[in-house]
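>> received
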Amino acid sequence: MQIDFFDFQRDRESVLRMWREVGWLETSNEKQCQGFDHFVKAGPGMVARQDGEAECLALSASGTLRYQQSDVRLAGITGVTTSLIGRQHGLASQLTARLVAHCAEQGSQVAMLGIFDQGYYDRLGFGTGSYNHRLYVSPEHLTVPMPTQPVYRFTADNWEELHQCRVERTTRHGFVTFDSAEITRGEMLWSTNGGGLGFRDAAGRVTHFLWYEASDLESGPFRMPVLCYSNYQQFIELLGIIRSLKDQVRLVSLTEPPGIQLQDLIDRPFRNQAKTSGS
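>> returned
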């Protein structure tokens, strides 16, 4: 195996083949391919090639991690993929280690990644991060007020201003902000039936928004991978948008933000939990 930096022109087709092979990309979904093109441009990557074809890929994107009251430079390892013929050769760990070392040379102070299982990346010095609490709720049970100001529709074409909104949001300890807007653009193109809803100020700037995706747009469930806001009132207004979908959408899932207990904003949360248990 030859290990080298990822070259978009040379490696794109073999990496797309690999991502389809492991189920990271739908074979006929051209929108996902476009999302891939933007996603891989967000930072350097490394590949292992056999006979000129990429059989393992590690990608990164630079950004900042909020640590207490300061921002530290972050290397986000955004994807590590190995083809079916590249398994059990230590390629994933080799590429990840080399990519982290390269990012450190470029000024990154800390690295992070998502894991497929506990333990594999311990050998490279990665520890366990915080847990995500995911809530599943019917919009009709939210107790927040309905939106009183105009709600705007966003698509992947709004990627630049939506990314800017993410950059300018208020951050807390542990929050990550990526430098490149290509990350936001790629995520939006990648989402299934994705779309955005949110608010603008008097000058037309996006102030806060949510991004949704759903396999069934008629009744859901809707997943909310992004809720971007700068204060508690804006967060409540985003929940108000979700509540406004109650006549048609049956279920919404979202991650509980830090410092907020979502059960405080739900009508009779324990009763509804018991009603839906095992459903």
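>> DSSP finds seven helices and twelve strands in the chain.
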